[in-house]
From TrEMBL:
<feature type="domain" description="Enoyl reductase (ER)">
    <location>
        <begin position="10"/>
        <end position="321"/>
    </location>
</feature>
<keyword id="KW-0521">NADP</keyword>
<dbReference type="InterPro" id="IPR013149">
    <property type="entry name" value="ADH-like_C"/>
</dbReference>
<keyword id="KW-0560">Oxidoreductase</keyword>
<dbReference type="InterPro" id="IPR020843">
    <property type="entry name" value="ER"/>
</dbReference>
<dbReference type="Pfam" id="PF08240">
    <property type="entry name" value="ADH_N"/>
</dbReference>
<dbReference type="Pfam" id="PF00107">
    <property type="entry name" value="ADH_zinc_N"/>
</dbReference>
<dbReference type="InterPro" id="IPR036291">
    <property type="entry name" value="NAD(P)-bd_dom_sf"/>
</dbReference>
<dbReference type="InterPro" id="IPR011032">
    <property type="entry name" value="GroES-like_sf"/>
</dbReference>
<dbReference type="InterPro" id="IPR013154">
    <property type="entry name" value="ADH-like_N"/>
</dbReference>
<protein>
    <submittedName>
        <fullName>NADPH:quinone reductase</fullName>
    </submittedName>
</protein>
Amino acid sequence: MRAVVLNAPGPPESLVVQDVPLPEPEPGWVRIRVRAFGLNRSELYTRQGLSGDAVTFPRVPGIEAVGTVDVDPSGTLRHGQQVAAIMGGMGRKFDGGYAEYVCVPASVVIPFSSDLDWAVLGAVPEMLQTAHGSLTTGVDLRPGQTLLIRGGTSSVGLTAALLAKKMDAVVLATTRDPAKADLLRAQGVDHVLIEDGAVAVQVRRLVPEGVHGAIELVGTGTLPDTLRATRTQGTVCFTGMLANEWTIPQFHPMDVIPQGVRLTAYAGEAHNLSPQVLQQFLDDVASHRIHVPLARRYRLDEIVAAHREMEANSLGGKGVVVT
């Protein structure tokens, strides 16, 4: 089969498409014929060597994939069943979804049924898992409340806006690029905020008491300001690091966290995305009730260009590779 192999950390050109042996599933694992896979920033960090001892090389990256069951030694999943696979060590502990076939533990496989295009399906699993988990587990957003999405034009940010609007929330979202304001409005965002490092001031003009919840997708550099935009008894969920900012130097909680504001974090796994939530989302897409923020589709041999664009934050949505 063909796969993208990363022999050592490096620039996008370190990703090489080559022929590798077809993997064989061991007991408790499933081999999937990959039809598409989404691009994620964690794969960018792996390529840059920022995943530490969690990754050994050479490695086929990719923390997610969608496709059809090729072999299930247990017989639980039928041949040809549509499935998604996410997380659980994919692309880190073992070879991941950047390939024509992938073997994964059965525990990370989520079955579904859909007539949607494979590129659309490939955009959904990890993006939905992260957005849904951030809203529910991280923020515990309730219908009609106010939500700030810091990093709104990321794929997770756009999906979180869609899900929040289904709950009749009032959504505020940030972007550094005024030209992307229409993209946010198309996802239902009520108030587009141009990122200037002091978004809390803009939020308080619109919602004087502060928002009920916030999803921080940019990183630790903007986290203190996001906390200041949140009301007493409100919740900020730290989910992403688009700016590659991992730590807060000389962190002083009493100075950084406003009185009464809750700070949580979210980093989910396959078990955090139920088949019911995935199927309902896909059904909503098929019936045009919601729109998947698919920014661009690539072929496998375009993986270097795909990583260049992901690293430049130029996609404005989800990039997907169709095999």
